[in-house]
């Protein structure tokens, strides 16, 4: 079924930007999208929704909780058994504002947003190395994780105090993990990117609404299609992460 297609795994693709990216990729008959979802039920609904859209690409569900090492390893086994390789991995799953104490919130953000993408790449690198194309990884980051932005007295993040600090710190940690992956896996032929979709309406936080000026999910997701298709290979990150156009400093 998927032998001649590029196989793309998106974590957290049952909703938000990940779901929009799955639909955009399925507009291409040469793509097979693995929809990652930590909930089997939500994943089945997303799968049915995508299949009903009559898109030419194909799709499959992978139940995958990036906060669980066991779940990540089981997902890698499923993809290996089904396809024997992976062509692109999009580490999209994240949480915004977890409940609980400060310590719990910080730990949960780091587990999902930083440790998750780290463990995902360690588990899926052997399959990416078996890609029949140029394999690519996209770590979905955020301006909230930019140290340069946080320290810019003229920017919007300078006076935020503790607001968003758990999420932002975890994305900054993911940026460093991206740097590690870009060097180590870059030498092994895998192109590694960090990309920020900008302010998008989603379930990430209560303020992520169109009324607050957020863009549609498909607008935030669209540039990742070009990254997966190799259109931005000349922009591999050195001093920052990719945006819809250009880069922002780490
Ligand atoms: N929206 C923005 O303005 C914005 C800006 C910059 C960066 N981003 C980044 O864009 C990415 C997508 O966010 P979004 O805006 O689409 O948010 P969203 O609507 O909340 O979607 C997040 C997705 O991640 C999943 N997820 C959460 N924890 C998970 C886990 N442990 N394992 C697997 N999946 C998990 C969620 O699943 P459930 O449905 O089960 O919760 C959901 O499918 C994130 O990396 C986010 O940081 C977003």
Folded structure, characterized:
- Keywords: Membrane, Transmembrane, Transmembrane helix.
- It comes from Neohortaea acidophila.
- InterPro entries: Fungal_SecMetab_SDRs (IPR051468), NAD(P)-bd_dom_sf (IPR036291), SDR_fam (IPR002347).
- This is NAD(P)-binding protein.
- Belongs to the short-chain dehydrogenases/reductases (SDR) family.
- The protein has about 250 residues and is an alpha/beta fold.
- The protein has one domain: NAD(P)-binding Rossmann-like Domain (Rossmann fold).
- It contains seven helices and eight strands; from the N terminus they run βαβαβαβαβααβαββ.
- A six-stranded parallel β-sheet has the order 3-2-1-4-5-6, with helices on both faces.
- Helix 4 runs parallel beside helix 6.
- The longest helix has 27 residues.
- The chain is globular.
- The protein starts with 5 loop residues before the first strand and ends with a strand.
- Bound molecules: NADP nicotinamide-adenine-dinucleotide phosphate.
- NADP nicotinamide-adenine-dinucleotide phosphate binds next to helix 1.
